[in-house]
Amino acid sequence: MKPIYEPKGAAKEYGDYALNIYTGCPHRCYYCFAPSVLHRQRDVFYNHVEPRKNIVEETRRQIEREGITGKLIHLCFTCDPYPTGYDTTPTREIIKAVKDSGNNVQILTKGDGTRDFDLLDSGDWYGVTLDGTSSKHRRDNYYLIEDLYKAQALGIKTWVSFEPVVNAGGIIKYLRLVAPIIDKVKIGKLNYHPSNIDWATFGRMIERNCRELDVDYYIKESLRAEMNKGR
Ligand code: SF4
Predict the structure, then answer these.
(1) Cβ 29 under 6 angstroms from ligand 1
(2) pLDDT of residue 137
(3) How far does residue 196's CA lie from ligand 1's centre (Å)?
(4) Less Cβ around it within 10 Å: N or C end of the chain?
């Protein structure tokens, strides 16, 4: 088993290395692509959440075997590293394994990762996804933003993923809220689902806002392509 892998395609825009800790995710985002990637029924993915078999031991073994060091490892693509309502000790153990070997983590969550802030430092990234909506199945946006404040105060690098974008107006509002406390933002669109958002207009608007607010931003290729159409 090789828990640490190099993502391909659009996922690569999030990081050179990634690791998925759990088999499912209780956050129930309707747009979640993970069940199709994992060939798992949506209900099973949402309801059966457990650490992947021997994930901590296998991660330690792979790091040692391959001498992995000095890398930034993204947690996670096909699950959330902090599944709400579940014991997240495996995530803590994975972070320890990654950091003990001279690597760093790039966390992305819609849950609560604050318990692990004591393990992180200025080489690590703590990020949250703000899609412009709220849901009772995951941590409220207000708390996700609070968590960014706490991380920033501790000297941990902070970032926000605006992907997928469900509510374009909500995203601009959130960008203005988080701009003073984030080191980077990545912006995409809503893939694999119909949407009436005018992506070219949204992309140009958010890019203008990022520049005005002096935020380090990255526009994902899928959104950039829409912005370039007809130019
Ligand atoms: S938080 Fe991520 S992995 Fe979990 S259901 Fe939502 S999109 Fe899927």
Answers:
(1) yes
(2) 94
(3) 22
(4) C
